[in-house]
Design brief:
- By secondary structure, this protein is of the alpha+beta class.
- The protein contains two helices and 15 strands.
- A seven-stranded antiparallel sheet has the order 5-4-1-2-3-7-6, with helices on one face.
- About 4% of the residues have low confidence.
């Protein structure tokens, strides 16, 4: 039995190590979060960690920092995207391979992030999967619901959720609902396409503004 457990442990550690180069730490004016390489020098991260008026520092696997420009944000999905400069592309890992299908309830999964002391991971289980779309509080559509029973450290928001084959299931965030949420890769792709074409999304506001007006002295 101990040999089997050790084999599983080594296999999971190897998956984390293989994905390490694709995970960055993002410091951009908000609470530090993680980011995930999305190909062609694009890094996806959690919008709640990004102040568009603040400079951004992306720390890669070797501990060095790379330059990056904000492409845009979609706060409705708690997503933001950066473009890494050509001079730093070699420091950024490739986009992780995307899982071909949704996970099944009961599958084991890994969350990854990059904290101030380096890579961090947690092991969890798929608690439930619903293939039907759902909407965030901001009104954005998410293609499927992946409920994960795993501890997600706040600094790991913007990091990936991996299956036990090392395939990417989605991007984790703590900014949409208590306990965190996972945004499937196709939802992230759609958000990137939108901000590349339109710029940052500014959610509409619905409410009432009250202003007190003094009465004329003769009333």
């Amino acid at each position: 039995m101990s040999i089997i457990i050790n084999d599983i442990s080594e296999a999971l550690a190897s998956l984390v190590e293989q994905a390490s180069a694709s995970i960055v730490r993002v410091e951009a004016g908000g609470p530090p979060v993680s980011g995930t390489s999305w190909g062609n020098g694009v890094v996806v991260t959690a919008s709640h960690g990004v102040d568009p008026d603040s400079p951004a520092t992306l720390t890669v696997a070797d501990g060095s920092s790379v330059s990056a420009q904000l492409i845009g944000r979609d706060p409705r999905l708690d997503l933001a995207f950066f473009q890494v400069g050509e001079e730093d592309l070699a420091k950024l890992g490739a986009r992780l391979n995307i899982a071909e299908s949704l996970p099944r309830t009961g599958h084991l999964v890994l969350t990854l992030g990059r904290g101030p002391r380096g890579l961090r991971s947690s092991l969890g289980m798929i608690g439930a999967v619903h293939a039907t779309p759902w909407r965030t509080r901001g009104g954005a559509e998410v293609s499927a619901e992946i409920d994960v029973d795993a501890t997600l450290h706040p600094s790991a928001a913007g990091g990936p959720l991996l299956d036990t084959n090392g395939k990417l299931l989605g991007i984790n965030t703590t900014g949409l609902r208590p306990g965190g949420a996972t945004l499937p890769a196709d939802t992230v792709d759609a958000a990137l396409e939108t901000v590349q074409g339109q710029g940052s999304i500014r959610p509409g506001l619905l409410g009432v503004r009250v202003r007190t007006t003094p009465l004329p002295p003769d009333l």
